[in-house]
Design brief:
Keywords: Magnesium, Metal-binding, Molybdenum, Molybdenum cofactor biosynthesis, Transferase. There is one protein chain. By secondary structure, the protein is α+β, with helices and mostly antiparallel strands. Among the domains are: 21-43 and 190-335, MoaB/Mog-like domain (Molybdenum Cofactor Biosythetic Enzyme, Chain A, 3-Layer(aba) Sandwich); 45-65 and 169-188, no CATH class; 344-412, MoeA, C-terminal, domain IV (Beta-clip). The chain contains 8 helices and 27 strands. It has helices at 23-38, 172-180, 222-228, 243-251, 253-257, 275-281, 317-335, 387-390, and strands spanning 21-22, 45-48, 61-62, 72-73, 77-80, 86-87, 107-110, 122-125, 129-132, 135-138, 150-151, 162-164, 185-188, 192-199, 203-204, 214-215, 231-239, 260-264, 285-289, 291-294, 300-303, 309-313, 344-347, 359-367, 374-377, 394-398, 408-412. The strands form 8 sheets. Strands 1, 20, 23, 24, 25, 26 and 27 form a 7-stranded mixed beta sheet that branches. Strands 17-14-18-22-21-19 form a 6-stranded mixed beta sheet, sandwiched between helices. A 3-stranded antiparallel beta sheet has the order 7-5-8, with no helix packed on it. Strand 24 (359-367) and strand 25 form a beta hairpin. Helix 1 (23-38) packs across helix 7 (317-335) and helix 4 (243-251) packs across helix 6 (275-281). The longest helix has 19 residues, at 317-335. The protein is elongated, with a radius of gyration of 29 Å.
Length: 416
């Protein structure tokens, strides 16, 4: 529920003071924030097809001609006309242009995908044909029904048919569809520029950390997460634990170029945690201030007066990446014009005790196969641990009431 008017800075827009937002509601709120952000992004741009991989289609893609646009052979062999046997012309070349028509009782060699001559009634596969003195017969003398191994024009799509709707992410298969449909360029949503801000005096980026120090787990990982979710890293900053440095990192020149700012650490309430005070000082609206989930409940989502979003991740690595899957994924989808995603159904392998009021997101691996395939929680899944996530296939979503072995459950893809 809305508690205050959206223009009041530093206040909650969702949830209630002292009460974390539910995990499903947090995902929905993040998608809404991304949809609001879309109004502050440049319009679509047109890019050459080879540069479109990974981008999001900004308009429906329709077939410019029938697919396939000519009747073709589904196999290597011979195009035949009428019932056999068939006479072969001497030394017939296999070409790719318009072949001469066939009369009844004639055949011509053809390759897979080759255009069928007018008059073709079937294709005889090479392994089923026998040629003797320029006469082709079916091996064993069996019949060859009309239409055998012919791909009629328009089998896949007719001219003008919808192939890919607006909002489709152009994975390699989608790019291939656009190519065979005759597209040389495609309109795509403007990329969402993201700024990464890594905080913490105790964080070191190389070597063996001393007692009281920790290695940076975010610098090598978050750019891949942003790219995997469809954003683009515009800038990065690494700062110590000071309010002045945090304010500059969130509102300096580079920060104002970005539309989403992602910070790591500093989301607590100790004297060394400055993300929330800085966001309040900059007039941010707190869209989400805590989520009823483990790990990752201290995550924050806020909006600055100029429309930029701030996603503040917890300092523990697993908690942060769970927050990325929970908040950054729906926000980037919405900003690119994509519909909200939903967790994918699965079965649980093993019991999970209840945790009233909180969802849990646990790195998990697939076990079994077929009807017995299920997701089992991994080991080493504490909020500061990475080993479980390193070998995981997905994030298993455990509802507050827990799970029983074999029960219906759901999962989220890993954020890369």
């Amino acid at each position: 529920m809305t508690l205050v008017h959206p223009t009041q800075p530093g206040r909650l827009l969702h949830g209630s003071p002292g009460h974390d937002l539910s995990w499903p509601a947090a995902r929905a709120a993040a998608w809404e924030a991304g949809a609001h952000l879309a109004a502050h992004l440049p319009g679509p741009e047109t890019v050459p097809l080879p540069a479109a991989a990974g981008r999001v289609l900004a308009a429906d893609l329709r077939a410019r001609y029938a697919l396939p646009h000519y009747a073709s052979s589904a196999m290597d062999g011979w195009a035949v006309a009428g019932p056999g046997p068939w006479r072969l012309p001497p030394a017939t070349p296999a070409g790719h242009g318009e072949p001469p028509p066939l009369a009844a009782g004639q055949a011509v060699p053809i390759l897979t995908g080759g255009a069928l001559p007018q008059g073709t009634t079937a294709v005889l596969r090479r392994e089923r044909g026998t040629v003797s003195e320029d006469v082709l017969t079916v091996t064993g003398g069996s019949a060859l029904p009309d239409g055998t191994d012919i791909r009629p024009a328009g089998t896949e799509a007719g001219e003008g048919d919808l192939l890919l709707p607006r909002g489709t992410r152009l994975v390699p298969g989608a790019v291939a569809v656009a190519a065979v449909a005759g597209a040389d360029t495609v309109p795509v949503a403007a990329p969402v520029p993201v700024r990464l801000v890594f905080t913490g005096d105790e964080v070191v980026t190389s070597g063996i950390p001393a007692p009281g120090q920790v290695r940076d787990a975010f610098g090598p990982v978050l750019p891949a997460c942003v790219a995997g979710l469809g954003g683009t890293v515009d800038s990065t900053a690494r700062i110590g634990d000071s309010l002045e440095a945090t304010l500059e990192a969130l509102d300096g020149t580079a920060a104002r170029r970005a539309r989403i700012l992602v910070t790591t650490g500093g989301t607590g309430a100790s004297p060394a945690d400055h993300v929330r005070p800085a966001a309040r000082a900059l007039g941010a609206e707190f869209l989400i201030d805590g989520i009823a989930m483990r790990p990752g409940h201290p995550a924050l989502l806020a909006r600055f007066p100029d429309g930029r979003l701030l996603l503040a991740l917890p300092g523990n690595p697993l908690a942060a990446l769970v927050a990325v899957a929970t908040l950054l994924e729906p926000a980037l989808r919405a900003a690119a014009g994509q519909p909200a995603s939903s967790p994918v159904p699965c079965r649980a392998a093993g019991d999970a005790p209840p945790l009233p009021g909180r969802h849990r997101l646990v790195p998990a691996r697939w076990i079994g196969s077929g009807a017995d395939r299920a997701l089992a929680p991994a080991e080493h899944v504490g909020s500061a641990m990475m080993r479980g996530l390193a070998l995981a296939d997905a994030l298993l979503v455990i509802p507050p009431e827990g799970l029983r072995e074999g029960a219906d459950a759901c999962w989220l893809p890993l954020p890369w």
